[in-house]
Specification:
single chain; Aspartate Aminotransferase, domain 1; transferase; binds pyridoxal-5'-phosphate; Aspartate Aminotransferase, domain 2; aminotransferase; Aminotrans_V_dom; 7-stranded mixed β-sheet; transaminase activity; alpha/beta; about 15% strand; PyrdxlP-dep_Trfase_small; globular
Length: about 375
Amino acid sequence: MKMMKLPVERSDFPTLQNKIMLSSCSQSAPPQAVIDALDAYKYSLIESGMEWGEWIEHVEGARKNFAELISCDPEEVAILSSVSDAVSSVVNSLDFKDDEGICVTEIDFPCIGQVSLSKKLKQGVPVTFIPHQNHMMKKEDYEAAINENTKLTCVPHISYYNGFKQDIKMISDIAKRNDSLLLVDAYQSAGSVPINVKEMGVDILVAGLQKYLMGIPGITFLYIKKEISAEMIPAVTGWFGQSNPFAFDLKSTDYADSTRRFNTGTPPIVNAYAAEAALKYILNIGVDNIQAYLQELSSYTIEYAEQLGMKVASPRNSAEKGATTAIYVEHADKAETKLKEEGIVVSARKDIIRIAPHVYNTKQDIKRALDHLKEWT
Ligand SMILES: Cc1ncc(COP(=O)(O)O)c(C=O)c1O
């Protein structure tokens, strides 16, 4: 087995002292810098009691780092708690006329369908589910479903189920031809593949920190292109969405110019400390380097799983695949528990086990996980 040079020091990741972490599609191992950032918040409470100025600086630091990650202006980024919150805010803030509706792919994470269906139940907005073929989508599927009545098209950049990666520019071109806004759920791609929202033609993008971004739950970034957000009145709002939250003006609204207006109340401060540090760590390695390293691990995972006679549920072509590899396993939940007992953390969904490495993993980690999986199944 050819040794690969790790882009990071394994000793940077305390969790690796007693675990093989292969669960970046669910929770990756946070670097020491993230643990230190959590401590910094804790000590600010213990030592200073209250430190609003410093707390908000970290929230702004997180916003700036995320904007750098996806190549946009920090003013085009709002900070919310979850992808579900962010998508709910967007869907409820859009005005749907007459027959205008939402297209959602069948490979989207369930919350995207659930949020859209609540709009249907409350206001009769039509929701079309674009069918998948074996958990993958084709250009023709989008061409057939998106039309002039599609106000909003929702797609995942990378599927949470099998790591299928989509050509966002191709989907954006179809959406633009039909005057549809394109919302990309980048929770499974952010941190593992490069994202440039302007070049990819993305109107709206959401991503949390827990997966390939090496952070913790409780914080999500919402990008909306400024030309779009500036025209929108947020349906979910609060004082941090105003141009000056500290004006304390009860009787009028003065929304921030751009997407910052989608902020709501006091931001998730402790989560922002972790997010700022995690994003800095990712930016320092460089997402291009991360992608190149993960592609090699991904090819190895498929090759070795097939050598063991396992059935892979992910695409073979690396251009159509992110870092996660899904393997069909009977009783996937039990397999996840069994591997955890061996100190190997993987993630089950329905009928598959997801092997989701990051830059701190080696081929040996993957071999050990697959050998145990084979032994147990
Ligand atoms: C692609 C994707 N979108 C959304 C979610 C759910 O995000 P949240 O819990 O922040 O609403 C997940 C969680 O696994 C996910 O993988």
